[in-house]
């Protein structure tokens, strides 16, 4: 096994999630050679790789990567932390310059994008990996092991509630554009949906009750579970006791009325993800496909109030869009 440090590029350095990747690259003993972002507020890189080359224009980044290749410095991996709608283009770039890709979720917005990437994997011989870090969380792993041991036919009742308040900036950014982010269910729900399907099996029924600018909700039946879910970025939907504590986020997943406790243990999950990828055990395109298919279906499904079991928060008043009052 080659124990030499791997050489990394990173696209999307200015985003908040990029620092977890910088830490993971460093913690695994590897080297960031070059990074790209059109924004230049990237001083955080000094804590990790101050000698990395940095570009604000893709064309210059592309030219530099090609120059390195021709001089004998081949990037082993390119990490992608860009807005959701750019992921597949940046993955294709990584594969074409001879690197494997490590991409944040959602890896793409549509299932057919996965088909296209798998074709390029075959053509280039390179690999695409995504970050599905909840699958590595000890509490989630323990729950899956428990469910896997149960007798066939057992069905669980699950409530998923994830409220993560965002200000007006959200609607002015790419995240507020459903064509760029995929909307609420895709942007903030993808990792929870992936986790639930990983543990409780594939989707048998999918009903959408709400899919608005600030919230989404629905009901689905998996092989081993019935799931009521509600996601929102609106502060007003937070429970009063959470607001009283001065908190802006609320996350709850109950299985048969029992809370899954996984509030901690997130700090090193990106590093664990990188350790597995470096060993050849990363989550590949086929692992990501079910959740990408689900959020695509949610995004395009008709809204059916009163069909299936509704999450209690569905009754909360819908807020006006801050830019379209």
The CATH homologous superfamily of the largest domain is named: Dihydrodipicolinate Reductase, domain 2
Helix content: 25-40%
What is the CATH architecture term of the largest domain? 2-Layer Sandwich
CATH classification class of the largest domain: Alpha Beta
Q: What is the strand content? A: 15-25%
Which segments are poorly predicted (pLDDT under 50) over 5 or more consecutive residues?
A: none
Number of helices: 11
Count of all domains: 2
Shape annotation:
globular
Strand order across the biggest sheet? 3-2-1-4-5-6
Termini distance?
A: 60 Å
Could you state the order of secondary-structure elements as H and E? Answer: EHEEHEHEHEHEHHHEEEHEEHH
Radius of gyration, in angstroms, nearest whole number: 20 Å
Give an overview in words.
35% of the residues lie in helices and 21% in strands. The chain is globular and about 65 Å long. With 325 residues, it is of the alpha/beta class.
List the helices and strands and how they pair.
Elements: E1 7-11, H1 18-27, E2 31-36, E3 53-55, H2 58-70, E4 77-80, H3 87-96, E5 100-103, H4 111-124, E6 128-130, H5 138-148, E7 156-164, H6 169-172, H7 178-181, H8 184-200, E8 203-211, E9 215-222, E10 225-232, H9 240-244, E11 249-255, E12 258-259, H10 269-278, H11 285-300
Parallel strand pairs: 1-2, 1-4, 2-3, 4-5, 5-6, 7-10
Antiparallel strand pairs: 7-11, 8-9, 9-10, 11-12
What's a concise summary of this model?
The protein is of the alpha/beta class and 325 residues long.
């Amino acid at each position: 096994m080659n124990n030499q440090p791997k050489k990394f590029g990173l696209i999307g350095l200015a985003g908040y999630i990029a620092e977890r990747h910088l830490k993971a690259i460093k913690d695994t003993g590897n080297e960031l050679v070059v990074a790209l972002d059109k924004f230049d507020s990237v001083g955080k890189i000094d804590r990790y790789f101050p000698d990395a080359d940095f570009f604000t224009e893709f064309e210059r980044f592309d030219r530099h990567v090609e120059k390195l290749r021709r001089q004998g410095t081949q990037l082993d991996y390119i990490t992608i932390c860009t807005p959701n709608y750019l992921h597949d283009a940046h993955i294709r770039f990584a594969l074409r310059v001879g690197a494997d890709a490590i991409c944040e979720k959602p890896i793409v917005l549509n299932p057919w994008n996965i088909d296209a990437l798998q074709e390029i994997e075959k053509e280039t011989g390179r690999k695409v990996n995504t970050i599905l870090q909840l699958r590595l969380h000890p509490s989630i792993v323990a729950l899956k092991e428990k469910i896997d041991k149960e007798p066939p036919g057992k069905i669980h009742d699950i409530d998923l509630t994830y409220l993560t308040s965002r200000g007006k900036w959200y609607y002015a950014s790419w995240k507020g554009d459903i064509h760029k982010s995929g909307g609420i269910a895709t942007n903030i729900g993808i990792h929870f949906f992936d986790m639930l399907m990983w543990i409780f099996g594939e989707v048998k029924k999918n009903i959408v009750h709400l899919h608005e600018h600030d919230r989404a909700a629905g009901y689905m039946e998996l092989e081993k579970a019935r799931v009521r879910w509600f996601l929102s970025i609106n502060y007003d939907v937070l429970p009063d006791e959470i607001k009283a504590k001065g908190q802006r986020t609320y996350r709850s997943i109950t299985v048969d009325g029992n809370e899954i406790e996984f509030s901690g243990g997130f700090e090193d999950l990106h590093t664990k993800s990188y350790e597995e990828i470096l060993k050849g055990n990363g989550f590949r395109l086929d692992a990501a496909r079910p959740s990408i298919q689900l959020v695509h279906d949610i995004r395009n499904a008709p809204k059916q109030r009163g069909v299936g079991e509704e999450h209690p928060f569905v009754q909360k008043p819908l807020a006006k869009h801050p830019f379209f009052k």
